[in-house]
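Lab notebook: predicted structure, single chain.

Context: the supervisor wants predicted structures on file for every construct in the current expression panel, including those that have not yet been purified. This is the next one on the list. No modifications to the sequence; it matches the entry in the shared construct table.
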Amino acid sequence: MRVVAPLLLTLSLLLAGPAGAQIYYAAPGDLGDGSACDSPGTIAEALDLARMDGSGMPTEVRIAGGMYNEFNLVIDFSNVSVKGGYNPADVGAIGCDDATAETNRDPATFETVIDAMDMDRILDIVPNVMAGDPPIFVSSNTDIEVSGITFTNGRPQRMTASGDLGGSGGAILLLNCDRVTISNNVFRDNESFQHLFAGGAIYIAGYATGPTTADFHPVNVELNENVFENNRTGDPMENSSGIGGAVAAVDFNNTSMTAIRQTVINAARNTFTGNVAQGATTIPAALCDGTGNQDCQDPFDGSLDTCNSRALGGAVYLANVSGDWQGNFFDGNSSVSGTNRGAGESDAS
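Prediction complete. Output recorded below exactly as produced.
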């Protein structure tokens, strides 16, 4: 008995969450304010509570299975896990407790779907900034996890420099944040569009915030066991460049070829199917290399005498980015372009 009791206590603490973690909840129907398992709010409300937590401890946002029509969600703080797949029969029930909710979590059974309905991007993962034009960088955010969620119908509607609506990263935009894990999610039917925007599902960028190496910011991201299906970047009816039908990652810390790369993307056991990078400007077919999963075509009449320019990486585009990409599956992705880098991984370094 002297052994069993401490073991049971340890197990209960592990199921409740990381040591000292503050836990917030979301469930369909907005049943409460998000502050507890028996009072779940919207995803936005739960994220707001995690942001304002102030305890100095890690936070968790636990999302019950079901449909959520939310967008413009923001993670602009550190040490947070956002996890779907919780049993909706537990979350919101009277007497619900953290340990039971974690024990019964099953993302495959309790699918958590965030459907943005083409209204805007679903989630921004961004650094701390001060208000300004442009905003003033303060610090990177770190130790962020997103898992067990289906992201669908994300389509950025942000005002661009050209005055058009658009943006990079149909589902997720990740800028200057470090130690981020995105795992066991589904990205389906997301889109980024307008000129020079990238990443039908996810766009990742690290960038310098000043002229010296002290202003470089590392970005380390783990992409594991995600499904990317039918995401798209570029607009065949506009003068746009489709870059990375599912994922695009770029390091802007230093464009020198000899510089140490600050952005590292490791990806394992992800599945990429039916993703498309689509450009618009036509050029002679003689300049098309046709290395994608489908022939170069004119998007207007389907002919092969012209093809779209500046479509790079039907599934993935990486520029000045290092990392390990092993054990990923690619099928049926397409990049239609005279400067086509293929349907799988591209590196413009």
